[in-house]
């Protein structure tokens, strides 16, 4: 971008005065440009101009108003300007980039690091400093990577080497919280005891006085039975039918499906996969087919770093299942739920990562054959049910910091009989009270019984 600058050493008011004060025919001064920059020397008394190396700086007279100088390539050259019989000399340096702006930007961004020195040396901005913390060093490295012509000589504390060797242990529990909601409306009839059609005939063929008990004292108090005449008949269904109103409410359950204990060095990376791989065919650059594998299941990727505020970590959690409804060349697709975040947590404290929700919905109904289809009254002989099941995966991550494996063992980190991590820094797992905690191994034991 070209710009015109009234440079202080070349102002028209300053140059004639300078020439009057100098007894010799030449005067030396310096100027600085960067590639692509143009400055304007406003002096209508200039009669001629010469550049020592026009591959570095281009000079052009702008009518009778002055000279325009443009930086073309990095390097140094000499500029001579004549004013009648007098002339002056300027040493011009062209930077490969706008290092002055780079210097100002870095000084502004890193001004809160007192042990860091930022200076312009030659064509580069040099960053120097000792005893920086790891967090400060990461900031300096990050900003230095954004600019060209920056030399980063900043160093961390000597004991930071030991800090890098610290181990971070991550107690991870992957819990599936299941919430089922069942709703049944109507009357459900029990017709399982229906025996079938029945037929009968009832009547008096002949009355007898032998067993009437007329001689007994109580006989006079008992009225005689009426005679059934003519014969009576019966036809119908012999059955026992009852009904009930259904009301069901299920409580949610929290089931631990995985509980890895991951470890990595400070600034390292820890990964976890509970699932499998599915093969698929792909073609290389030469067209040769090859077999590759795609992971699926529960994946966890954590990158923890120790800082002054605690443990800073990036975490990526993903849950994927095979989707047979979508296939390309026989290879199924995947249903994926993924979340990624960055957090700061103190050691021994638990981070909860949730939001990976899946839902299933189904329904059904029952009715007494024939009667359930009667308009209006049919509602008394049928029942409908709707069932909604939601599954949410929740990740509980608790970090611990130890110098080495030996200190980790001395600190007593490990799991108790319930699988909860115990250490001198704390223990425990947060599960909402409304959920019943189930263990995968316990379920397997009950199934065997």
TrEMBL record:
GO terms for cellular component: type II protein secretion system complex. Residues 33-86 form the Pilus formation protein N-terminal domain. It comes from the Bacteria. GO terms for biological process: protein secretion. Belongs to the bacterial secretin family. Keywords: Signal. PANTHER family: PROBABLE GENERAL SECRETION PATHWAY PROTEIN D (PTHR30332), TYPE IV PILIATION SYSTEM PROTEIN DR_0774-RELATED (PTHR30332:SF17). Residues 248-402 form the Type II/III secretion system secretin-like domain. InterPro entries: Bact_Secretion_Sys_Channel, GspD/PilQ, T2SS-T3SS_pil_N, T2SS/T3SS_dom. Residues 1-28 form the signal peptide. This is Uncharacterized protein. The lineage of its organism: Bacteria, Pseudomonadati, Pseudomonadota, Gammaproteobacteria, Moraxellales.
């Amino acid at each position: 971008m070209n710009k015109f600058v009234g440079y202080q050493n070349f102002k028209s008011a300053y140059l004639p005065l300078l020439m009057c004060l100098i007894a010799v025919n030449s005067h030396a001064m310096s100027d600085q440009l960067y590639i692509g920059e143009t400055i304007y020397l406003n002096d209508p008394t200039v009669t001629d101009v010469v550049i020592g190396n026009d591959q570095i700086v281009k000079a052009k007279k702008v009518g009778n108003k002055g000279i325009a100088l443009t930086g073309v390539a990095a390097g140094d050259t000499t500029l001579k300007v004549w004013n009648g019989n007098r002339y002056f000399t300027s040493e011009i340096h062209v930077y490969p980039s706008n290092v002055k702006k780079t210097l100002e930007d870095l000084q502004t961004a890193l001004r809160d690091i007192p042990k860091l020195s930022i200076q312009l040396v030659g064509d580069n901005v040099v960053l120097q400093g000792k005893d920086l913390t790891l967090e400060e060093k990461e900031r300096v490295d990050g900003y230095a990577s954004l600019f060209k012509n920056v030399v980063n000589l900043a160093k961390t504390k000597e004991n930071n080497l030991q800090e890098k060797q610290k181990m971070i242990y991550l107690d991870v529990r992957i819990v599936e919280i299941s919430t089922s909601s069942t709703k049944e409306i109507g009357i459900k009839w029990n017709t399982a005891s229906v025996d079938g059609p029945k037929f009968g005939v009832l009547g008096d063929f002949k009355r007898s006085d032998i067993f009437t008990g007329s001689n007994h004292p109580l006989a006079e108090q008992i009225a005689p039975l009426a005679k059934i005449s003519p014969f009576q008949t019966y036809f119908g269904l012999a059955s026992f039918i009852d009904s009930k109103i259904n009301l069901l409410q299920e409580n949610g359950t929290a089931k631990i499906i995985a509980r890895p204990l991951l470890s990595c060095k400070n600034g390292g990376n820890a990964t976890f996969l509970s699932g499998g791989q599915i093969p698929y065919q792909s073609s290389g650059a030469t067209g040769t087919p090859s077999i590759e594998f795609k992971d699926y299941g529960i994946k966890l990727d954590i990158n923890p770093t120790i800082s002054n505020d605690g443990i800073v970590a990036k975490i990526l959690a993903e849950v994927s299942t095979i989707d047979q409804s979508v296939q390309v060349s026989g290879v199924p697709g995947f249903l994926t739920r993924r979340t990624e975040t960055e957090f700061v947590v103190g050691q021994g404290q638990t981070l909860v990562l949730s939001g990976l929700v899946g839902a299933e919905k189904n329904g059904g109904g029952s009715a007494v054959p024939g009667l359930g289809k009667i308009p209006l009254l049919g509602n008394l002989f049928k029942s409908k049910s709707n069932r909604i099941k939601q599954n949410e995966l929740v990740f509980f991550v608790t970090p611990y910091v130890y110098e080495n494996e030996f200190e980790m063992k001395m600190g007593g980190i490990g799991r108790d009989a319930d699988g909860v991590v115990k250490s001198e820094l704390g223990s425990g797992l947060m599960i909402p009270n409304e959920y019943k905690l189930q263990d995968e191994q316990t379920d397997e034991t009950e199934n065997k019984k």
